[in-house]
What we know:
- The structure is a homotetramer of 345-residue chains.
- The first copy, chain A, has helices at residues 13-23, 43-46, 63-69, 81-91, 108-114, 132-140, 150-165, 194-197, 211-223, 256-267, 315-329, and strands spanning 3-8, 28-34, 58-59, 72-75, 95-98, 128-129, 144-146, 174-179, 202-203, 230-235, 242-249, 273-277, 292-299, 304-311.
- Chain A is of the alpha/beta class and 345 residues long.
- Chain A has two domains: 3-126, NAD(P)-binding Rossmann-like Domain (Rossmann fold, 3-Layer(aba) Sandwich); 151-313, Dihydrodipicolinate Reductase, domain 2.
- At the C-D interface, helix 1 of C face helix 1 of D.
Amino acid sequence: MAYNVAILGASGYTGVELVRLLSAHPEVRIVRVTSRQYAGRPVAEVFPSLKGFCDLDFTDPGVGEIAADAQVALTALPHRAAMAVIPDLLGAGMKVVDLSADYRLRDEAVYREWYQDHTSPELLDEAVYGLVELFREDIRKARLVANPGCYPTSVALGLAPLLKSGLVDVDRLIIDSKSGTSGAGRSAKVDTLFCEVNESFRAYGVPRHRHTPEIEQTLSWLAGRPVRVNFTPHLLPVSRGILSTIYADLVPDMDQGSLEEIYRDFYRGETFVRVTGAQLPGIAQVTGSNFCDIGCVADPRTGRVIIVSVIDNLIKGAAGQAIQNLNLMLGLDEDCGLGAAAVWP
Amino acid sequence: MAYNVAILGASGYTGVELVRLLSAHPEVRIVRVTSRQYAGRPVAEVFPSLKGFCDLDFTDPGVGEIAADAQVALTALPHRAAMAVIPDLLGAGMKVVDLSADYRLRDEAVYREWYQDHTSPELLDEAVYGLVELFREDIRKARLVANPGCYPTSVALGLAPLLKSGLVDVDRLIIDSKSGTSGAGRSAKVDTLFCEVNESFRAYGVPRHRHTPEIEQTLSWLAGRPVRVNFTPHLLPVSRGILSTIYADLVPDMDQGSLEEIYRDFYRGETFVRVTGAQLPGIAQVTGSNFCDIGCVADPRTGRVIIVSVIDNLIKGAAGQAIQNLNLMLGLDEDCGLGAAAVWP
Amino acid sequence: MAYNVAILGASGYTGVELVRLLSAHPEVRIVRVTSRQYAGRPVAEVFPSLKGFCDLDFTDPGVGEIAADAQVALTALPHRAAMAVIPDLLGAGMKVVDLSADYRLRDEAVYREWYQDHTSPELLDEAVYGLVELFREDIRKARLVANPGCYPTSVALGLAPLLKSGLVDVDRLIIDSKSGTSGAGRSAKVDTLFCEVNESFRAYGVPRHRHTPEIEQTLSWLAGRPVRVNFTPHLLPVSRGILSTIYADLVPDMDQGSLEEIYRDFYRGETFVRVTGAQLPGIAQVTGSNFCDIGCVADPRTGRVIIVSVIDNLIKGAAGQAIQNLNLMLGLDEDCGLGAAAVWP
Amino acid sequence: MAYNVAILGASGYTGVELVRLLSAHPEVRIVRVTSRQYAGRPVAEVFPSLKGFCDLDFTDPGVGEIAADAQVALTALPHRAAMAVIPDLLGAGMKVVDLSADYRLRDEAVYREWYQDHTSPELLDEAVYGLVELFREDIRKARLVANPGCYPTSVALGLAPLLKSGLVDVDRLIIDSKSGTSGAGRSAKVDTLFCEVNESFRAYGVPRHRHTPEIEQTLSWLAGRPVRVNFTPHLLPVSRGILSTIYADLVPDMDQGSLEEIYRDFYRGETFVRVTGAQLPGIAQVTGSNFCDIGCVADPRTGRVIIVSVIDNLIKGAAGQAIQNLNLMLGLDEDCGLGAAAVWP
């Protein structure tokens, strides 16, 4: 028997990816896809790649209508729009995986500093941060999961083994991240026009990108003490993918073998993390899949370690991880519907 | 009970795609992947996207070894190399889907004119041309299927309804095709270096590209009389995808509605052909899928019709169609293992 | 002594290209750059590539102010906006090169059919169509030059020698064109976002793209009789460049040598047209330059000829050709300021 | 009166760029272009973008022939091949700008460690490191200039003001660089095929890329003490451009205004360095030009500074800087032939 799910905000890149992945999910049925902009139009007309996979029309319903059909909501709305509807969805008895930033930060004051006032701060304690490899057991029991941001996913998975090991200087972490353009969303903006992005590359949001406090929250939890990082995102002329290059000072010197062992031990048994050791991963090897591939190199010349982690920002960095969370919340196999290999090249 | 298959020439782009698709196929088990270049190395080391999906090593075995393990061979070898091994594979009792050009042309003289001497012309009669939507019943019974070329697939599917209808002037067909660069293969050549292809676009093989006789063979069969076409391929700065724009003179005038009806009627019930009518398809809507999407526009100003067909050259134009053929030859459902939607964007 | 020029609509891709090219022009001084959107901001702040090349601010002035400073106006405004200001610019004694579509069509009725009502039809007779290689002498004497569209430039230059020769069937011309995305302009639209264009390719405006009547007007003039064509534009995932593949039926058969000779003869002495014969040109060989490179292949199998012409849509297809026109109108050397080679790769 | 120059190794991307730039140089005449691979073929046939700009044929001459025609040699040969010919060129009385790595490192032992044995170590002392903004006066008097590597140029110019100021902790420099694919050269390799680079992004050469000692040599000179850095290069799916993101710990805290002032002061009067302050530069704003644009941001949260510098790797990172050096060695204006703005978009 399938679970009925609603996808709110289904016409952005993440929303479309949720539709694509869930239309192939054996235990879930999409019963509703919402979009203010396209309400009334068939999904397969607006997104012809989905013809034959989703025969719904976009609608723009109220919470009551949504809850009448569906048991679970995946909200791929902009921040602020998400928290405007999620308390009511929960109130109507639904489970929610929220892909916005609204419930990711534990501390209301931090949310206010980096975003705006929070309209349902009482839910911040309840919301579980949906980074599965770190918080799996809490997610199983959650009613509301805050799906992690794309950059924070690549960074937290990349650093977790090192921070847990206690072997790096947590005051000297440098995170240099690069993201494909789908991360910037599907709204019409000059900055993400083809000719502005193509054949170029640039940093943005320096030094205060909004993913910084989310990254620091997880790293602090991992390290057991407050961590501040430099996080510099850049815009890549590719559609999908994030690669984070992370620099850490090793407290004692460590050789390549020991370093790799720390990573392999930490992720032993994980379905969606592949440790590649000194063969550093490239973005294309995960595009279209839910994997996070992580490489690591110790540099004895400088006493530092360089970590490279790659994800598909729309899958492990958004829709795929949301489905991982959904699976756990529904008691399904964690990898259900997420078994695809990367489409390469 | 799964069928055992061998993939010969598994380290090219088509070979890797066969490994990816078949590793998710529920009725088939890959038991051997060959590569002269990489013999002895693990598939997942050379192609890290496949880690966790294929735990074989590349080998460079003789026919006897191949036939000892496998019932079916998919040969993704260069032309000439394919016909050097296929008679022996058949002789050893295997079924073969050949992805090279060696058994596509019925007429030995035509093969000789466009390629070279044929070393097993006696098989040309037996080989079935594996364009499933046209030759499905013959394929079911075949021992040797010649998997169509990528361009010919997009062209033949695009023109079949019109040619069958008898409503176009078969002496005036113009085919302007554009292909992604994976169609040029994975061997190291200056012409397909990133900087030579990126930010450029060019025609090549004009006026005698080797896919011309294959295209004409199928179109002549459809038309019931000899057809000669102008076929101009171009190289697109994308990894995957073919778009063919086809121009035909309508013998009587025809309106848009009737034109679309001819296409919808012809492809009614087909799983992998989607008729999009006047909403002409783009490449991205099929990338990663086995679909051929076809649009058609009647131009009353000029009395012509413009057909646009798109495929993923590595799937419907190669590995996917080969698996469609394999499924038919093995009595499986035709779409088995081929159900993925396009990965967009 | 330099001529003073104003660039109206200087913040689109064509406008910026005019600023770049004219800032290096030895006989011209840019005295004004207008932009409603960016009025008050320094050009070099909005477009940092121009830092050190243009120290003006964008303004949004009236015609009086413009005419007080400048003798010549280059109008890179949208159609409709152009004809709203050009009569006044002329009335104020300025010469004008208009890069919009407003004065390209000779026949007011045709303009109305494909665009809208014309507000200054009395100027249509006076305006000279600025395809330099065909109308050079008229341009020298013009007060108002209608700079050709990008597609029409590539098509008319590609076909002129053949049509003038009388050797092709003008009822059977097929034009399959492909353009880089800068041709779609710099306004924020979902259709030209990076992720919508990247890794894709599609036809658009079929069968009635607005450049069709402009193309037919020139071809009819060349042929000396009405010509109707099929013109199919496509969107390429590159920033710059147009490649047009043109198919024509040769009335008598013609060999490759004679065909090339027709082209070489026709363009002998032309600075900006390079005939490449059977070595068909690619887009990258003209990117960043004012060249139109043209290749031609006779196909004895089908009795057709295939012409391939390439331009940089922002230079020979817009700003560069406008400067060619400006040079002629001012009595300067035609190639003044236009001598750059393509930037390759 | 023009100077006669020879370009050795003129068929790689850097060599072709030298031909393009020097063909427009008012004081220099290219008299010889060498290429083993293309000897005997016209430059304009192999590189059609140069038709009309260079009417020479490639040759493969001996040193005597070269020296008979030319006063200056620009050597764009692979390392090792360069030092095999340069002593003889000097011996024949020529001046040389060497674009290889062979004479960049002062210390023979370092060269041996990172490359191989040096065959003319006696020239290492004489060779001047051609980073013009730092070593201008020495270059004017040099007979042999070692043109800097592309990455080292972007890094040294990015860090010079800070290191000279003494305000950063030189033991904690992190350099995260990203380069377009033309930096990998024009030889046929699977790794730089279009489909391997497109839609991907990866680090390489970690932690021992050969540009590391060159970077450290210059930074140590600037700092007045030995500097060791982490330098991580990445491969971007663009043809041209390098962006280096550099992280440094500020010894005392510094505000944004003071930081920018350090940069503006240091580069005051420099033609080819543009300081952009907190508006961090993107690659496209320098593509096709000889500029190095540098932005800088102070992060009071972490006490670090983030520097972003961009160059066109083929121009300021290779051919353009070589011409800057050539101009100085010949007593010409430093910017002669290098005045082009970036071609954007």
